[in-house]
Description:
Blueprint (H helix, E strand, L loop, with lengths): L11 E6 L9 E6 H5 L3 E7 L5 H13 L1 H6 L4 E6 L3 H11 L6 E4 L4 H6 L2 E4 L5 E4 L2 E6 L2 E7 L10 H9 L1
Parallel strand pairs: 3-4, 4-5
Antiparallel strand pairs: 1-2, 1-5, 3-8, 6-7, 8-9
Amino acid sequence: xxxxxxxxxxxxxxxxxxxxxxGCSIGPNPVKTREAAAGKTIxxxxxxxxxxxxCSAKHVPGxxxxxxxxxxxxxxxxxxxxxxxxxxxxxxARDQKTxxxxxxxxxxxxxxxxATGLTMDLTGKGMGVRSARYSMLIKDGKVATLNVEAPxxxxxxxxxxxxxxxxx
Length: 168
């Protein structure tokens, strides 16, 4: 499992863009994790799936709400990573009104989740291999803090915890 001090794994996530701009075409665009994190402070939070109850009611809204505070604390970007495709993440971004605040990144094949060692097997529930619920603060591609939730919990990966760590 990834730990504090490790470099984040190289993986390609997918981000859905609805409008062209900054060299991005409309539709899914690849985001190479190490390249995208280089020279930046990134608050990453990962969760089992888009549109799921805790994720939609608490996890994503908390980061959207704390966007300005996280920026003031030195966070350059906020990433939400989930084992979903870019189209689902794009629809969820619209639903959660994350535009300009949280980058909704699809890890459709669980490549990033597997590389971090932070997965859970929900095959018995018809959902396959998913990401565990966690957050981490990345500074120039290295893990500065890591908060992994116990199964079924939402206690340490929230935006308030991340904000306290970003300020620290």
